[in-house]
Amino acid sequence: MLKKLLQGIVIGVANIIPGVSGGTMMVAMGIYDKLIHSITHLKKEFKESLRFLIPIFIGVGIAIVVVARILEICFVTFPIQTNLLFCGLIVGSLPFICKHVKGKTISGGMILSFLVFFIIVIAMALMGENEGNAADVSFGFMNVIKLFGVGIVAAATMVVPGVSGSMMLMILGYYNTILECINDTVEALTAFDIPGVMENMLILIPFGMGVVIGIFLIAKIIEFIFQRAETHAYWAIIGLITASPIAILWKTDWSGFSLLAVITGIVTFGLGWFVASKLGEE
């Protein structure tokens, strides 16, 4: 239970940070296949699926509400060390992924899968360099539809290993808006500001509905792919994971570069690697 809760926190934190993939963290911790299975077989294996999913989703919720605040400070104060921590988490996941392709003959199609998805992550990092204009989320029918659609896109990219859902939100111009809305909702709840909570719910409810539907849709698609081309899928994931640290370092603020920052960054990288090894498959 505690381990699943911690895994959920790691996934939640990863989904908050542009350039870091929650799906990658799921794979890194050895729970990706089981999580997809639990989502797609929720009706058939209801109790077993809920027993697996609930602590993970609670951890994700804790990360979004609590850790987002801490990380916001860390990224402003220690951007190099914080980004290297996530690079360590991601690179530390590779041994677990490589087990799925070890000993299998490498074909041209597998190499192509690796290269295509490696390039996708790098391209997303380049595209997401600057966030678009702040999104219009004033209440209205079209904005509700937009928020619902953005939720579907965000959920789909959050579940796919190596692809950053928060980076996609940044590209679409909704990242800061949604993050601020979540933080404002937490502040309104702690202050018992019901009108403030209701105002934010007009944004979060359609977005959240899109996220839930998006997760179920992409889970079905991913399960279909793994059933028919498992090895190719893992090579694509390796490409995504390998490119993720490059994407993160590309977007890192290096203005505070110094010998001390490099040394402490190496320490946080090692810490991330250690955490990935402990939360991964045994």
Structural features, described:
With 282 residues, the protein is mostly helical. It contains 13 helices and no strands. It is globular. 41% of the residues are buried. About 2% of the residues have low confidence.
Using brief descriptors, characterize the structure shown.
single chain; 282 residues; mainly alpha
Helical percentage: over 70%
Strand content: under 5%
Work out the radius of gyration: 19 Å
Query: Tally the helices: what do you get?
Result: 13
Q: Order of SSEs, N→C?
A: HHHHHHHHHHHHH
Spans of at least 5 consecutive residues with low confidence: 129-133
Strand tally is: 0
What is the approximate shape? Answer: globular
How far is the N terminus from the C terminus? 16 Å
Major sheet description: none
Give the helix/strand class.
Answer: mainly alpha
Mean of all residue-level pLDDT scores: 81
How do you describe this structure in short?
With 282 residues, this protein is mostly helical.
List the helices and strands and how they pair.
Blueprint: H1 2-16, H2 22-28, H3 32-40, H4 46-77, H5 79-91, H6 94-98, H7 108-127, H8 141-159, H9 165-172, H10 175-190, H11 194-228, H12 230-250, H13 259-279
Helix pairs in contact: 1-2, 1-4, 3-4, 3-11, 4-5, 5-12, 5-13, 7-12, 8-9, 8-11, 10-11
